[in-house]
């Protein structure tokens, strides 16, 4: 497994590890000094792996509880689970992921990359499940090869006000509204992100991969006039990484059977 630490498009560090053993660290900068690097990385990677073990255990419990266990004779109770049925797609190889990253000139968040290589390339997950990596642009018409390497444009919730007379039955036919709508749904508002999950009603979960909020889960709810906003933890009130978002789905789903 490899983690790349990148700043301003330049790889500062390339870290190779196998479970809890770090066996290769290379720097992209001459003379870089990082005190206690091995210790810090050992703690970080060990935490990541231990958390994924916990995640897999929770997933196994939920799979047994929802839908009637082995023979699935009972109805699925968790929203969307009758679609993915707690099944994962085959994992991706390191080479496949590196080829994808190189093709679009960006780096995937470490926790999501680990998920793809060790758990599954999409499948079981929140709502109707996770998209495979290849479907990152699901229902998007993207022709810009720099889309994923361009910074995600938002720091906080974004939802511009509609300044139209909504009581006018024909307001959606005006030129001003059509221009506003074209801008509102432009793909430039979601650059630097992957679509990883469909919640339904044209609501999508995004994984930000480039920019100041890289690693966070955001929600594209423009289809319901709610804009684009960060996913927030119900328990902590903080923004969620991919791993935290997935783990919170498991935790909340298990509470249904408590």
Helix/strand structural class: alpha+beta
Biggest sheet layout: 4 strands, antiparallel
Alpha plus pi helix count = 6
Helix share bin? 25-40%
Strand content: 15-25%
CATH fold annotation? SMI1/KNR4-like
Describe the protein in words:
The chain has helices at residues 37-65, 81-84, 94-104, 110-118, 175-184, 242-255; strands at residues 2-7, 10-18, 21-27, 193-200, 203-208, 217-220, 228-230. The protein is globular, with a radius of gyration of 20 Å. The strands form 2 sheets. It has a 4-stranded antiparallel β-sheet, with no helix packed on it. Strands 1-2-3 form a 3-stranded antiparallel β-sheet, covered by helices on one side. Helix 1 (37-65) runs parallel beside helix 6. The two termini are 36 Å apart. Helix content is 30%, strand content 17%. The protein has 258 residues and is α+β, with helices and mostly antiparallel strands. The protein has a single domain (74-255), classed as SMI1/KNR4-like (3-Layer(aba) Sandwich), CATH 3.40.1580.10. It has 6 helices and 7 strands; from the N terminus they run E-E-E-H-H-H-H-H-E-E-E-E-H. A hairpin with an 8-residue loop joins strand 5 (203-208) and strand 6 (217-220).
Short description, anyone?
The protein has 258 residues and is of the alpha+beta class.
Features:
258 residues, alpha+beta, SMI1/KNR4-like, four-stranded antiparallel β-sheet, 6 helices, 7 strands
Can you lay out the helices and strands and say which pair or pack?
Layout: E1 2-7, E2 10-18, E3 21-27, H1 37-65, H2 81-84, H3 94-104, H4 110-118, H5 175-184, E4 193-200, E5 203-208, E6 217-220, E7 228-230, H6 242-255
Antiparallel strand pairs: 1-2, 2-3, 4-5, 5-6, 6-7
């Amino acid at each position: 497994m490899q983690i790349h630490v990148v700043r301003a498009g330049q790889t500062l560090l390339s870290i190779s590890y196998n479970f809890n053993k770090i066996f290769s660290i290379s720097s992209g900068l001459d003379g870089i000094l990082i005190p206690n690097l091995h210790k810090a990385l050992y703690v970080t990677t060990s935490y990541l792996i231990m958390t994924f073990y916990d995640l897999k255990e929770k997933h196994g419990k939920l799979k047994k509880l929802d839908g009637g266990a082995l023979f699935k004779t009972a109805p699925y109770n968790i929203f969307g689970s009758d679609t993915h049925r707690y099944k994962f797609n085959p994992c991706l190889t390191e080479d496949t992921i590196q080829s994808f990253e190189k093709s679009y000139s960006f780096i995937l968040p470490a926790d999501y990359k680990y998920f793809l290589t060790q758990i599954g390339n999409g499948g079981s997950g929140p709502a109707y499940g996770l998209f495979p990596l290849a479907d990152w642009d699901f229902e998007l018409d993207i022709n810009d090869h720099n889309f994923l390497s361009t910074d995600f444009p938002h720091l906080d919730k974004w939802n511009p006000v509609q300044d139209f007379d909504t009581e006018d039955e024909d307001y959606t036919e005006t030129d001003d509204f059509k221009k506003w709508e074209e801008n509102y749904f432009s793909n430039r508002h979601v650059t630097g992100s992957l679509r990883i999950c469909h919640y339904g009603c044209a609501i999508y979960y995004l994984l930000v991969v480039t920019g100041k909020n890289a690693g966070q889960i955001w929600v594209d709810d423009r289809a319901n006039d709610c804009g684009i906003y960060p996913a927030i933890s119900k328990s902590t009130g903080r923004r969620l990484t991919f791993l935290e978002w997935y783990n919170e789905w498991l935790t909340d789903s298990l509470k249904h059977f408590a």
